[in-house]
Structure formats: structure tokens, C-alpha cells
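ok, trying the design again with the full structure, not the truncated one.
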């Protein structure tokens, strides 16, 4: 018994020691930094999943061609009768999911083919998700773009000077076949899905856009022949005869972003000595994976032909690739990857590769040739660079947790005791970068250094230095991330470059072996003589410059020529036709010199695109017309949100109409915020509550006060003041009230965000920091929204917008007031066509005009040309994402532009100075505000004397009426 007791005692002691060691190890592990990864490792890409399927022995060649008609889909469903296809399924907002069962004979990999017709009115692509048996098999299946096609007019139209303008495109309504591919076209072939033997449920989930579906085909992957298998054995007969197509005249294209450009070389057709002719496909807008152009060619004799493109490719030392289709099919494997080397001059590029010139089989009659951007050769590099950016950013976050936001440069670190794997991780990312450089050079056949290679090389050299001296890592976090020259910053810049595949095209030749092609470039003497002629003719060219014509209404516009061309075309087609008033719309020479033009008597009748703060300054000087004098003003003004008028009012007069509207919105990376389980803030108190958690992982929040530059304008400061119910003017406008408790509380919050809560003092680009994930949440404007939507495909679907954080009022409502910073339209007081000018402003701001203008911009210039009209009804009808549009509309209710007085500029400046003094110099908020108040009041007195509200002794002469949001209805409509 005693022996048993001793054994039990021994086991108990041993167990206690073992558990204690476990606890000790756990405590030691606490010294090592572990932060949640910002990438969901369970959400693997197609490039991760497909090789695993192959290793499991799954095949893609199991014969299957199963067609599912609309009647085979689950209920509920909407069935339409189509004249061409009979019963078709409608997929739209009312019926966003279509599901069916498919029975397959054998477990394997299969492709999905849609026969569909786009009916979407939205500028956004048709986008669907695919679930197999209620799961997404890889992340690419969550966002698949279904192409929408746009036709091309038979003839280009010209503006009033005879220059070609980009035509307005309409949707090409036809039934199409599309086998599903990844959105970025990184996968070389079609997407495959794993199906089990027997029944499988396939779900098609609409994300954006509307379309009709006549059938879905589940099939095995098609195996293309090689080129040697494609051409017949024996003597190959190549047909003769030269056929020339102009590249800027496709039958249709699958992206509104593909635009035509002007090249003024002698041998580029159509040629013009002075006029701007749209005579090429512009490579700068034809460079994104999946973009495609389609041409119809008629041949008299069926047979084999060469195809040559006259091209120019300006991307330094990088090859562009195109996929060629003939009548909807890639004819052979090599046609998937036709290379086009960098060339600064026009070259006749016969389609081929590795020294082999390919021939293509064409049938007698009409053949359709497709030329699609293919970026799949760069897929592995793209994966590597993304992995480096995410991985290095994660290491940076770990180091920030370890070292804090401010690093002691004198502290010695034994970094491996805290991050034992950090050197191995950095070595892995170093190897990926070295591999990427090698792959890039192999693909492009060049070892020359361009922007991409330079960024990759600098990044792996930085990593090498840190690998050799790991204990310096905490002192060099900025070299990994945050700094503009950091590894993550370089990755963020180079990732889009790798997938940029530009190719300008002038002509397409279909020809035989012995057919002589026109010379690609003019000779030296021709080019030299052409340059001389154009030089002398340029002295007599007054196109788009303001003119003085007493018979025509003169309108100056502060925008680029593309905007002006569309405006002029619409004005000629509708306004002049309706009213008989001729309009000449010109580019504004310089907005800042408008008042000088007034002084010189050379002002136009109307100016558009004028910064919202200028009309008040012009009204002070009697340079613009009070629009309330026109009998239809009341009706016209109700088209806008009344808060946008606050800065356009002088005393009781209204001196401009809002034209465009900016927005302040909350942008957030949904993937990161969900990963960290951080709620999206609704108020500034909520923002303060999430900052410690964000900063624990080295992240932060962006407020507009963090923009580069010392000056903080009303756009940055007034939202805080108005949300605190503060005012900056006394009721009589003779002094400032920035020393009120409400404004002091607002200034305290503005400064505490930086002095206590450690918001970044200066952010070079919130857009880039948001993309990289350094700042996953913050306040941005309409321009930020457009850029993220159209220039950040790497985070598509990972971000959302919400209403601006505000202050909770006593009535329980969150005040989200913001300064809208709109642009405006004005009529000059010296115009002798005021009635005609008002009719033009009335027409221009009408619901239908603004909606048509927005659609025409997108249909002619591309989806990135989104028009942020101030007309509320027109904005509601725009074909944007409905959820996003509702956020805009909800936030719009809080537009509260800053009212103006003669000394407003001094209030704006001194509020900025006060903020800087508190944040940078450590001055007390009240002291800074008191000092600012003295300066402002002196300037108010001076300006009120200047404009006749006070006499020289400071005595009151006449009252100054300040507009407030509460009084706007009275000012505008009573």
C-alpha cells in the first residue's frame, strides 16, 4: 500500500511540474507577437485549388454536354417568352438567384457555359457568383463578370470644328455564349468546377446587372489542337488578296473603357493635316485583361489567311498579349497568346510566335475576328507580388505591436525571441521577388530595367538588408510599410503595372503570303515636311478658345475637352432645337482669371464648373446676376438639395445654381474589419472606441484633416463644427463666434484625434493606404469612390461605403453635416443675353438633361466617367449600384455648405492655424481659439468697412443678412 501511495505521489508531482512547464511555455509565448492574419486562408484562389484537384486524380476530359433549360431551374423563377429563344429565365434584382440540379456520370472537373442576353441598364458589369452544392469552391467564383457588348456607329460624328468625337455607344442586344472565366483573366483557360458523381446543385447568384438566360451547359473542358495539328498535312495553300479593316471601326466591343484615339502620323488613316481624327484604338484604354474588340470580315474564298495588325506598344520592355478568336472560337492553343513587343513606332505585326507566322482558316462569307487582352502569362508574378505585399504588411503589423507606434532608436532588440520565424518569412518573400524578376524577364525576353523591374529589385534588396540584420527590424518598420518607398508601397504600385497590357491598333490586314502591305510609317522627309506645315498652321488655330459672337450664347466650361464635346453635341441636338438659341461652348482659359475677364469686358454669358466658393466673391463685386430675378427660379431651385445653396447666397440674392455635388462618405475594408471583428462606427464616439483596437494591429483611421499640407479648409473643419451645432459668425456678421463652447468642443475633438488618439498627421494618399490595408477605414469623397470602383480591381468586393460618422444630438439624431464643395453655374452681370442664359441654365440642370449627359459620358468615354450631378432626381435615376446610391442619397440630406461673408477667408485660415498650433505646437485649444478670434474680428471690421456695412469709425450703416439652413426655404422660395 505504501508503494502504491508513493507511486501516486510521484505521478501527482510529475503532473504538477508538467502543467507548470506548460504554463511557463504559454507565458513565454506571450512574449511572441501573434496577430490575426488579415487574409482568410480558408478562402483559397483557383490557383491553389485546381492543382489540389489534379493531385486527387480529378479529370477535366470526362465527356459531358448537359443543357439545362429555364424550365429545369428551381422555383421561384421568372420565365419570359423570347421571340428568338422561346422560354428564357430573367435574372435581376427581383429574382437574383437561379438554381438547378445536374446529374454527372463521374466525379470530375467541368465548365459552365451561359447562353444569355444582357438587359442591364447599369454602367456596372453583369456580375454573378457561382456556388456548387451551397459552397464557393474558390474565391474567384464569388465574382465572375459576364460580358456586355456595345455597338459601334457606322460613321463617327464631328464637333463644330470638324474634329471627331468619341461616339455614344449603345448596348449590343444579341444572344451570346460565354464559358465562365475569372474576372481578371489571370487563369489561362476557362474556370472549372468540381462536381460529384450524381446530383449536384448549382446556384447562380446575381451581384450586379440584369440578363436573360436561355440555357446553361455543363460540359467538359475543350481541348484545343496545337498549331501543327490545326494546319493540314502536306502542302498548305494560302489564299491571296488583301483586305484592310480600320481598327477604330469594330462591330462591337465588350467594354466602354475601350476608346479610340488620335495619331497624327502621316501613314495612320484616316489622316488629317489639322483636324483631330479618331483613327486608332488607343492602347492606354485597351490594356485590361478580358477587354475585346470584334470585327467582321467577308472573304470570297474559304481557306487559310495571314492576319497582320498594325500596332504600337509603348510599355517599356514589357510584352503585351492578345487572344485571337475566329467565329467565337480560339482556333488553336498558340492563338491564346499572341505576343506584341514594345515598339515606339508603328509596326506591321503578323500574328505569330517564336518565329512562326500563323495562318487562320476563314470560311466563305462573313467571319468574326475577336482580339482580346490576355494577361494570364503574368498570373504567377501577380500572385507572388500580392503574397509579398500581404505578408510583409503582416510582419509590419507584428513589429508595430511589438515596438509600439514610436520606436526607440537606441533600444537593442533580440527580435528572434519575439518573432522566431520572421527571418524565414522575409527570406520567403525575398525568394518570391527574385523569382518574379526572373519570370518577368523570361516572359518579356528582355533583361532591361523598366519601372516594374526597378520596384521589384529595390524591394528584394531592402528585404535582403533586413534579413542580414534582423534586430534592426523594429527600427525600420517604415522600410516594410507606411513609407512611400516601402516594400508594400512598391508592391501596391507595381501590381497594377504587371497586369497592364496596352496595344494601340491602326489597321487589321487579312492577306496572302505575297500580298504587299502598306508601309507602317512615313519616311523622314514626309514627317519633317508635315511638322513644318503644322507648325505654321498652329498660329491660325482658335478651336475651343473663347470667341466673341453677338449672335451666339457664349458658355465657358471649367472641364476637359471630352466633357465640352458631349455638352456641345447635346446643346445642338436639344437646346438649340427647342429654343432656337445657338450656343458656343468653350474651354475656360483659367478659372482664376474670370474676374479679370469681367474687368476687361471679355467675359462669357454663362460659366459652368465654377468652384462653389467663387460666385459669392463675384457677387460682392457685382460681377454675376442674381438668379432670383427670373420667374422660373423657384421651380428650378427645387431640383437641388437646399443645403448646397448656402455658399451661393449673398444677402438675399442667389448668384449660382449647383451643378455637381461632392460627398463625404465613410469607406471601409469589409474584409479587414470583419477579420478584426470591429464594428463600423456611426458616431465620432464610436470612432474613438475602435481606434485602440485598430492601432493594436498597426492600423488607423483616416480623417480629411490628415491630408497633405498645412492648410485645413472649411471642407476639413466645418463638418466637426456644424455637427456640434456650432456657428462661426454672429447673427449680424460683425464678429466671429468661434470662441463659443460648441466650436471649442469641435476644435477639441479635431485636435484630440491627433494629440491623444494618434491619427496619422499626414497621409499622402488615403486611396493607396486603403488599397494596401494600412488604413482600412476613413472618410473619402466622390473621387475616391470612382477610383476604387474602376482602378482598384485587386480589392473589388472587399470594401463598402457608409454614412459619415457624426455627433449624437439631444433629440437622438446623429448629425452628419458636411461641406459639399459643389461646382456651380453662373450668369455674368454684363451679359446682354441674360434671358437666353437663364434658359440655358434651366435646360442644363433639368432632370432629363443631366441624366442623358451622365449616360452619354459613360457610353462615350467609359464607366469611370461618372457624373456627380447636383440634380437630386437625376441622381436617383442613374444606373449605379442601388445600395451605394442609397448611401449617397442618405448622406446628401446632410449637405450643409458653409455660408459666406466678406471675411470668410480669414475665418477659414485662422481655424486652420489654430488647429496647427494645438496639434504641432502644443498650445491649449482655448488659447489658440482666443488668439484666432482677435485676428478674425479685426479682419471682419476691415472688410465690413470696405463693402459699406460699417463707416470708417466702425459705426453700423446697414445690416448684413447671413443665410442659415433653417432660413433657406424662406430665401429660395418665399
Amino acid at each position: 500500500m505504501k508503494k502504491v501511495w508513493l507511486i501516486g505521489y510521484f505521478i501527482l508531482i510529475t503532473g504538477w511540474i508538467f502543467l507548470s512547464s506548460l504554463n511557463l511555455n504559454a507565458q513565454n509565448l506571450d512574449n511572441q507577437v501573434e496577430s490575426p492574419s488579415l487574409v482568410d486562408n480558408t478562402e483559397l484562389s483557383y490557383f491553389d485549388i485546381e492543382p489540389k484537384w489534379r493531385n486527387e486524380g480529378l479529370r477535366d476530359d470526362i465527356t459531358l454536354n448537359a443543357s439545362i433549360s429555364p424550365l429545369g431551374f428551381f422555383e421561384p423563377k421568372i420565365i419570359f417568352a423570347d421571340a428568338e429563344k422561346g422560354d428564357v429565365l430573367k435574372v435581376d434584382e427581383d429574382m437574383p438567384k437561379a438554381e438547378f440540379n445536374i446529374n454527372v456520370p463521374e466525379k470530375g472537373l467541368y465548365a459552365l457555359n451561359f447562353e444569355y442576353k444582357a438587359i442591364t441598364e447599369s454602367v456596372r458589369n453583369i456580375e454573378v457568383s457561382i456556388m456548387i452544392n451551397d459552397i464557393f469552391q474558390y474565391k474567384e467564383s464569388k465574382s465572375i463578370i459576364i460580358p456586355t457588348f456595345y455597338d459601334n456607329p457606322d460613321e463617327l460624328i464631328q464637333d463644330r470644328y470638324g474634329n471627331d468625337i468619341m461616339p455614344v455607344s449603345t448596348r449590343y442586344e444579341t444572344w451570346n455564349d460565354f464559358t465562365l472565366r475569372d474576372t481578371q483573366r489571370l487563369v489561362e483557360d476557362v474556370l472549372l468546377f468540381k462536381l460529384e458523381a450524381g446530383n449536384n446543385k448549382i446556384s447562380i447568384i446575381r451581384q450586379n446587372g440584369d440578363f436573360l438566360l436561355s440555357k446553361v451547359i455543363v460540359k467538359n473542358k475543350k481541348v484545343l489542337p496545337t498549331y501543327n495539328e490545326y494546319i493540314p498535312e502536306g502542302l498548305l495553300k494560302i489564299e491571296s488578296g488583301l483586305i484592310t479593316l480600320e481598327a477604330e471601326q469594330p462591330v462591337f466591343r465588350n467594354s466602354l473603357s475601350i476608346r479610340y484615339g488620335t495619331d497624327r502620323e502621316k501613314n495612320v488613316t484616316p489622316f488629317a493635316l489639322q483636324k483631330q481624327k479618331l483613327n486608332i484604338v488607343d492602347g492606354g484604354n485597351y490594356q485590361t485583361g478580358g477587354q475585346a474588340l470584334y470585327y467582321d470580315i467577308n472573304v470570297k474564298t474559304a481557306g487559310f489567311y495571314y492576319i497582320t495588325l498594325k500596332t504600337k506598344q509603348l510599355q517599356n520592355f514589357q510584352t503585351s498579349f492578345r487572344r485571337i478568336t475566329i467565329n467565337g472560337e480560339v482556333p488553336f492553343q498558340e492563338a491564346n497568346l499572341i505576343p506584341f513587343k514594345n515598339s515606339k513606332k508603328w509596326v506591321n505585326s503578323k500574328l505569330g510566335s517564336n518565329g512562326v507566322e500563323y495562318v487562320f482558316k476563314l470560311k466563305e462569307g462573313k467571319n468574326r475576328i475577336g482580339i482580346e487582352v490576355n494577361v494570364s502569362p503574368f498570373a504567377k508574378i501577380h500572385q507572388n507580388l500580392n503574397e509579398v505585399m500581404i505578408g510583409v504588411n503582416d510582419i509590419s503589423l507584428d513589429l508595430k505591436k511589438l515596438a509600439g507606434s514610436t520606436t526607440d532608436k537606441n533600444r537593442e532588440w533580440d527580435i528572434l525571441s519575439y518573432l522566431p520565424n520572421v527571418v524565414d518569412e522575409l527570406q520567403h518573400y525575398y525568394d518570391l521577388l527574385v523569382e518574379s524578376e526572373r519570370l518577368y524577364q523570361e516572359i518579356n525576353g528582355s533583361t532591361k530595367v523598366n519601372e516594374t523591374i526597378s520596384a521589384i529589385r529595390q524591394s528584394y534588396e531592402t528585404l535582403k538588408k533586413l534579413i542580414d540584420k534582423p534586430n534592426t527590424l523594429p527600427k525600420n518598420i517604415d522600410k516594410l510599410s507606411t513609407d512611400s518607398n516601402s516594400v508594400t508601397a512598391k508592391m501596391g504600385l507595381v501590381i497594377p503595372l504587371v497586369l497592364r497590357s496596352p496595344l494601340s491598333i491602326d489597321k487589321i490586314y487579312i492577306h496572302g503570303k505575297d500580298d504587299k502591305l502598306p508601309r507602317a510609317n512615313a519616311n523622314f522627309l514626309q514627317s519633317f515636311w508635315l511638322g513644318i506645315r503644322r507648325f505654321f498652321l498652329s498660329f491660325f488655330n482658335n478651336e475651343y478658345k473663347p470667341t466673341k459672337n453677338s449672335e451666339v450664347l457664349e458658355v465657358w466650361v471649367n472641364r476637359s475637352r471630352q466633357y465640352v464635346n458631349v455638352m456641345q453635341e447635346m446643346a445642338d441636338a436639344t437646346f438649340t432645337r427647342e429654343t432656337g438659341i445657338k450656343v458656343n461652348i468653350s474651354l475656360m482659359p483659367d478659372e482664376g482669371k474670370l474676374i479679370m475677364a469681367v474687368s476687361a469686358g471679355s467675359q462669357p454669358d454663362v460659366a459652368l464648373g465654377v468652384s462653389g466658393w467663387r460666385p459669392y466673391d463675384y457677387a460682392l463685386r457685382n460681377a454675376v446676376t442674381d438668379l432670383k430675378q427670373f420667374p422660373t427660379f423657384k421651380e428650378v431651385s427645387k431640383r437641388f438639395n437646399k443645403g448646397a445653396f448656402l455658399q451661393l447666397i449673398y444677402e438675399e440674392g442667389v448668384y449660382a445654381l449647383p451643378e455637381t455635388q461632392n460627398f463625404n462618405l465613410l469607406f471601409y475594408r469589409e474584409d479587414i474589419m470583419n477579420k478584426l471583428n470591429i464594428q463600423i462606427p456611426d458616431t465620432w464616439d464610436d470612432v474613438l472606441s475602435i481606434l485602440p483596437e485598430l492601432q493594436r494591429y498597426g492600423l488607423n483611421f483616416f480623417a480629411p484633416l490628415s491630408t497633405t499640407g498645412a492648410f485645413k479648409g472649411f471642407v476639413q473643419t466645418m463638418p466637426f463644427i456644424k455637427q456640434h451645432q456650432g456657428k462661426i459668425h454672429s447673427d449680424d456678421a460683425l464678429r466671429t463666434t468661434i470662441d463659443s463652447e460648441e466650436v471649442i468642443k469641435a476644435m477639441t475633438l479635431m485636435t484630440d484625434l491627433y494629440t491623444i488618439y494618434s491619427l496619422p498627421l499626414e497621409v499622402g494618399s488615403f486611396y493607396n493606404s486603403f488599397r494596401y490595408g494600412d488604413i482600412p477605414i476613413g472618410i473619402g469623397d466622390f473621387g475616391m469612390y470612382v477610383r476604387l470602383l474602376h482602378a482598384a480591381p485587386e480589392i473589388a468586393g472587399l470594401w463598402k461605403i457608409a454614412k459619415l460618422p457624426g455627433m449624437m444630438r439631444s433629440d437622438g439624431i446623429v448629425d452628419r453635416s458636411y461641406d459639399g464643395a459643389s461646382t456651380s453655374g453662373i450668369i455674368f452681370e454684363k451679359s446682354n443675353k441674360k434671358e437666353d442664359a437663364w434658359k440655358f441654365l434651366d435646360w442644363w440642370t433639368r432632370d432629363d438633361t443631366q441624366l442623358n449627359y451622365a449616360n452619354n459620358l459613360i457610353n462615350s468615354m467609359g464607366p469611370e466617367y461618372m457624373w456627380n450631378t447636383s440634380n437630386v432626381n437625376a441622381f436617383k435615376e442613374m444606373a449605379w449600384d442601388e445600395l451605394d446610391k442609397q448611401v449617397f442619397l442618405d448622406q446628401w440630406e446632410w449637405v450643409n455648405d458653409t455660408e459666406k461673408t466678406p471675411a470668410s477667408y480669414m475665418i477659414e485660415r485662422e481655424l486652420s492655424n489654430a488647429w496647427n498650433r494645438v496639434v504641432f505646437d502644443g498650445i491649449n485649444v482655448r488659447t489658440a481659439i482666443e488668439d484666432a478670434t482677435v485676428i478674425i474680428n479685426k479682419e471682419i471690421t476691415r472688410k465690413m468697412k470696405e463693402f459699406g456695412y460699417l463707416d470708417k469709425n466702425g459705426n453700423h450703416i446697414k445690416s448684413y443678412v447671413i443665410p442659415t439652413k433653417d432660413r433657406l426655404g424662406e430665401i429660395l422660395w418665399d
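Keeping the full-length input from now on. The CA atoms of residues 848 and 958 lie 43 Å apart.
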